[in-house]
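We include this case.
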Amino acid sequence: MKFRLFFVVLAMFVAGVAGAQSREALEGNYNLQERYEVMKEKAESYSDYKVIKISIMDGVWKIYMDSLALRKQQLAAANQSIKKLQGEITGAADQVKKAEETMAASEYERTHLSAFGIPVAKGFFVSFVSIIIGALVVTLLVALGSVRVLRRANKEKEVTVNAVSSEFEAFRKKALDKEVKISRELQSERNKLQAIMKG
């Protein structure tokens, strides 16, 4: 009876140890490869064969399937996160593109202006206006120089005309005086001639 009790206790201990060893493959924090190794290592051996309990295999299979489902779920979540990030990247790229277009438009507006409805670079416009203003200043200076030359020429002509007029007036006075003198002399001679004819 003691022997029987000892045998029952021993059988329960062996079953408990085997069960504990079998449960070790189902419990614990193992990855799939480690779980497989534990299951293989704790299985009973029979020649070249390993005897694994169906409940252990089912449990490990369930863990594999749960791990696979978790991986699929994580993959789906990762894909969703990637799509969200790609959407954000696309939105950010669109914003960058709009910002670049705005900057390009701002740069264009800063460097160009509209003259008579034609867009012109500010540098070219400033150069063109400077050339026109320079040409107008040169033309004005040439015109002022010409006016001075004409005034000087007019003064010289006026002086010449005044001198000629003075000379002419002097000549006319002389001529008039001569004419008056000659007329007097002629009258005197006529008077003499009449006096001779009477006498």
